[in-house]
Protein backbone atom coordinates (compact mmCIF):
# COMPACT_ATOMS: atom_id res chain seq x y z
CA UNK A 1 0.00 0.00 0.00
CA UNK A 2 1.23 3.43 -0.85
CA UNK A 3 1.70 5.86 1.99
CA UNK A 4 -0.54 8.75 1.01
CA UNK A 5 -0.39 11.99 2.88
CA UNK A 6 -3.47 14.05 3.06
CA UNK A 7 -2.91 17.73 2.69
CA UNK A 8 -5.35 20.19 4.10
CA UNK A 9 -6.71 22.65 1.65
CA UNK A 10 -7.16 26.02 3.24
CA UNK A 11 -10.54 27.58 2.66
CA UNK A 12 -9.06 31.01 3.37
CA UNK A 13 -7.56 32.75 0.35
CA UNK A 14 -4.10 34.23 0.78
CA UNK A 15 -4.20 37.89 1.70
CA UNK A 16 -3.22 40.30 -1.01
CA UNK A 17 -1.16 43.25 0.13
CA UNK A 18 -0.94 46.73 -1.33
CA UNK A 19 1.97 49.14 -1.23
CA UNK A 20 0.60 52.67 -1.15
CA UNK A 21 2.11 56.13 -0.85
CA UNK A 22 0.75 59.12 1.01
CA UNK A 23 2.23 62.29 -0.49
CA UNK A 24 1.56 65.73 0.90
CA UNK A 25 2.91 69.28 0.60
CA UNK A 26 2.75 69.43 4.42
CA UNK A 27 5.87 68.65 6.42
CA UNK A 28 4.72 65.76 8.60
CA UNK A 29 6.05 63.30 11.11
CA UNK A 30 4.38 60.01 12.06
CA UNK A 31 3.51 61.74 15.36
CA UNK A 32 1.24 64.19 13.47
CA UNK A 33 -0.69 61.33 11.88
CA UNK A 34 -0.86 59.42 15.18
CA UNK A 35 -2.27 62.46 16.97
CA UNK A 36 -4.96 62.89 14.33
CA UNK A 37 -5.97 59.20 14.31
CA UNK A 38 -5.68 58.41 18.02
CA UNK A 39 -9.45 58.69 18.64
CA UNK A 40 -10.55 57.02 15.41
CA UNK A 41 -12.98 54.19 16.26
CA UNK A 42 -11.79 50.67 15.55
CA UNK A 43 -8.12 51.61 15.31
CA UNK A 44 -5.33 51.24 17.83
CA UNK A 45 -2.44 53.63 17.18
CA UNK A 46 1.13 52.62 17.96
CA UNK A 47 3.86 55.19 17.37
CA UNK A 48 7.61 54.64 17.30
CA UNK A 49 8.53 58.30 17.40
CA UNK A 50 12.31 57.79 17.37
CA UNK A 51 11.97 55.88 14.06
CA UNK A 52 9.17 58.13 12.73
CA UNK A 53 7.01 55.03 12.14
CA UNK A 54 3.30 54.58 12.78
CA UNK A 55 1.36 51.33 13.01
CA UNK A 56 -2.41 51.11 13.04
CA UNK A 57 -4.04 47.95 14.33
CA UNK A 58 -7.57 47.33 13.12
CA UNK A 59 -10.37 45.43 14.83
CA UNK A 60 -9.56 42.55 12.45
CA UNK A 61 -6.07 42.54 14.05
CA UNK A 62 -4.55 43.41 10.68
CA UNK A 63 -1.93 46.13 10.86
CA UNK A 64 -1.22 49.06 8.59
CA UNK A 65 2.32 50.45 8.67
CA UNK A 66 3.37 54.00 7.78
CA UNK A 67 7.08 54.58 7.13
CA UNK A 68 8.62 57.83 5.88
CA UNK A 69 10.36 57.91 2.51
CA UNK A 70 13.00 60.25 1.17
CA UNK A 71 11.38 62.70 -1.24
CA UNK A 72 14.52 62.87 -3.40
CA UNK A 73 13.68 60.26 -6.03
CA UNK A 74 16.46 59.23 -8.40
CA UNK A 75 14.17 58.67 -11.38
CA UNK A 76 13.81 62.04 -13.18
CA UNK A 77 10.08 61.61 -13.90
CA UNK A 78 9.35 60.64 -10.27
CA UNK A 79 11.42 63.59 -9.04
CA UNK A 80 9.51 65.94 -11.36
CA UNK A 81 6.18 64.52 -10.18
CA UNK A 82 7.09 65.27 -6.55
CA UNK A 83 8.65 68.67 -7.30
CA UNK A 84 5.72 69.86 -9.45
CA UNK A 85 3.27 69.07 -6.65
CA UNK A 86 5.41 70.65 -3.91
CA UNK A 87 5.53 67.35 -2.00
CA UNK A 88 7.38 67.69 1.32
CA UNK A 89 6.44 64.40 3.02
CA UNK A 90 5.91 60.88 1.73
CA UNK A 91 4.89 57.84 3.75
CA UNK A 92 5.02 54.27 2.42
CA UNK A 93 1.99 52.33 3.60
CA UNK A 94 1.61 48.57 3.55
CA UNK A 95 -1.79 47.00 4.12
CA UNK A 96 -3.99 44.05 3.29
CA UNK A 97 -6.16 44.83 0.28
CA UNK A 98 -9.25 44.01 2.36
CA UNK A 99 -8.39 46.96 4.64
CA UNK A 100 -8.41 49.54 1.84
CA UNK A 101 -11.97 50.78 2.61
CA UNK A 102 -11.00 51.38 6.25
CA UNK A 103 -7.83 53.27 5.37
CA UNK A 104 -9.69 55.38 2.80
CA UNK A 105 -12.00 56.59 5.59
CA UNK A 106 -8.94 57.45 7.72
CA UNK A 107 -7.38 59.29 4.79
CA UNK A 108 -10.43 61.47 4.30
CA UNK A 109 -9.63 62.87 7.74
CA UNK A 110 -5.85 63.01 7.12
CA UNK A 111 -6.25 64.78 3.76
CA UNK A 112 -8.78 67.27 5.13
CA UNK A 113 -6.19 68.20 7.78
CA UNK A 114 -2.89 67.96 5.86
CA UNK A 115 -3.94 67.81 2.15
CA UNK A 116 -2.18 65.51 -0.30
CA UNK A 117 -3.24 62.17 -1.75
CA UNK A 118 -3.09 58.42 -1.26
CA UNK A 119 -1.95 56.44 -4.29
CA UNK A 120 -0.64 53.06 -5.35
CA UNK A 121 3.15 52.76 -5.31
CA UNK A 122 3.30 52.18 -9.07
CA UNK A 123 5.13 53.56 -12.10
CA UNK A 124 2.60 56.36 -12.55
CA UNK A 125 1.36 56.63 -8.91
CA UNK A 126 -2.10 55.46 -10.03
CA UNK A 127 -4.74 54.79 -9.02
CA UNK A 128 -5.35 57.62 -6.59
CA UNK A 129 -7.47 56.27 -3.73
CA UNK A 130 -8.07 59.51 -1.82
CA UNK A 131 -7.29 63.18 -2.36
CA UNK A 132 -5.95 64.63 -5.58
CA UNK A 133 -2.59 64.56 -7.34
CA UNK A 134 -3.59 67.41 -9.65
CA UNK A 135 -0.94 70.00 -10.29
CA UNK A 136 -1.41 73.10 -8.12
CA UNK A 137 -2.90 76.09 -9.89
CA UNK A 138 -0.94 79.30 -9.91
Describe it.
With 138 residues, the chain is of the alpha+beta class. It is built from three helices and seven strands; from the N terminus they run E-H-E-E-E-H-E-H-E-E. The protein has a seven-stranded antiparallel beta sheet with strand order 2-3-4-5-1-6-7. The model has no long low-confidence stretch (mean pLDDT 88).
List keywords for this structure.
23% helix, 7-stranded antiparallel sheet, 138 residues, 31% strand, globular, alpha+beta
Q: How is the secondary structure organized here?
A:
Layout: E1 17-24, H1 30-37, E2 43-48, E3 53-58, E4 63-69, H2 76-84, E5 89-96, H3 100-114, E6 117-120, E7 128-131
Antiparallel strand pairs: 1-5, 1-6, 2-3, 3-4, 4-5, 6-7
Please count the beta strands (DSSP E, at least 2 residues each).
Answer: 7
Q: What fraction of the residues are assigned to beta strands by DSSP? A: 25-35%
Q: How are the strands of the biggest sheet laid out side by side? A: 2-3-4-5-1-6-7
* CA-atom Rg in angstroms: 18 Å
**SSE-based structural type:** alpha+beta
H and E order: EHEEEHEHEE
Low-confidence stretches: none
What can be said about the biggest beta sheet? 7 strands, antiparallel
Query: End-to-end distance, in Å?
Result: 80 Å
Helix content: 10-25%
How many alpha or pi helices?
Answer: 3
Chain-averaged pLDDT: 88
Amino acid sequence: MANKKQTKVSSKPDKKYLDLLYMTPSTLKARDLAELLKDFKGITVELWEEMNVLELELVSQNTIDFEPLDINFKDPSDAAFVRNRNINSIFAINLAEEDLPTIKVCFEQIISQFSGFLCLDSEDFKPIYAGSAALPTI
